[in-house]
Amino acid sequence: MADTDIDPDKLASYTFQVFTKLEGAVTAGMIHLGDRLGLYTALAEAERPMTTDELATLAGLHERWVREWAYNQAAARIIDVDADECFSLSAEAAAVLATPSHPSYGMGLFHRLPQTMRTLDDMPDSFRTGLGHDYDSYGCEGAIGIERGFEPWNNAFLLPVVLPALDGVTTALEAGVNVADVGCGAGGAVLLMAGAFPNSTFTGYDISEYALERAATKLEASGVRNATFVDPRSTSLPSDNSVRLITTLDCIHDMTHPQEMMESLRAAITPDGTWLLVDIKALDTFADNARKNPMASLMYGISVLACMSSAMSEPDGAGLGTLGLSESRAREMAAVAGFTRFRRLDIDNPVNAFYEVRP
Ligand SMILES: C[S@@+](CC[C@H](N)C(=O)[O-])C[C@H]1O[C@@H](n2cnc3c(N)ncnc32)[C@H](O)[C@@H]1O
What we know:
alpha/beta; 13% strand; binds S-adenosylmethionine; 16 helices; Arc Repressor Mutant, subunit A; 2 domains; 7-stranded mixed sheet
């Protein structure tokens, strides 16, 4: 292509578009640091906008570094700055950056940003061989990031909104039934449900050693007695139709063998049982995802770095990936596995769709 084909205005705006991606990546790194160093917590706790001297003192850090960080954050409009260069958080920023109990709290994915980006070095090999990396390749911090990412929403909505939306499930849980949470991560959902329904017995299954370690530590600290956490490769799901409720929260698209997993769920579930399938609100085609999902590029990127990589971490992995389990594909796969009823629940979530699947 000749240089004369280049329109200088288009070149300038295209270059700007490319470099805004780098700006986003670098600012994401600064958000990771703000979270990790307690800078957002310090800003949220302050009663008035602070100078960087005050912020550095409160956080126990070196002022010159805090000042440069604050300039990045204010320039990116993540934090507020006034004419005297005093910095603060809006109420909305405090919810997203500094309030772990708020459902919009968003520091989980930023927590694991260094581990996620470190996999870039492994990617050229994966692109050549086809083989990806499971969740343990991000180390313990990877599991903590997932935990911090999912628990705020689950804490706010799983018990009061999601379980009551399932036909007959809370009554069964109150009476006492077996429950399995497959792909349980650090066990937050299991501990919530087990604490609320002491007559039922809960088992969390995950193949991540780091997630299972976190779950075991939290189980001990919680005092909950009706929950256990196991690796399904050593303690497989029961195959005697004895589990009344199965939950899979944001994990089927990460699995190397999702169809076989659905078949195992079908063998585990009671004839009147319920499978709560929570997965990303994906559409059927790339074109639809790109047009209708404002986070599509983020999700396809996370897929390469995490979800699809996990789903390709065995040589014959299915590789669904972050946007790979649309409603229609989930319906088809569930039907192939022997489930006959499939209902989308009317639950509002920016990222996930919720389905009640039954034998
Ligand atoms: C995105 S995380 C979701 C964790 C958890 N459900 C939550 O909401 O915090 C996906 C999890 O699925 C797990 N996973 C992947 N393949 C699995 C399999 N075959 N069996 C059980 N867990 C699996 C991963 O180890 C990871 O912990």
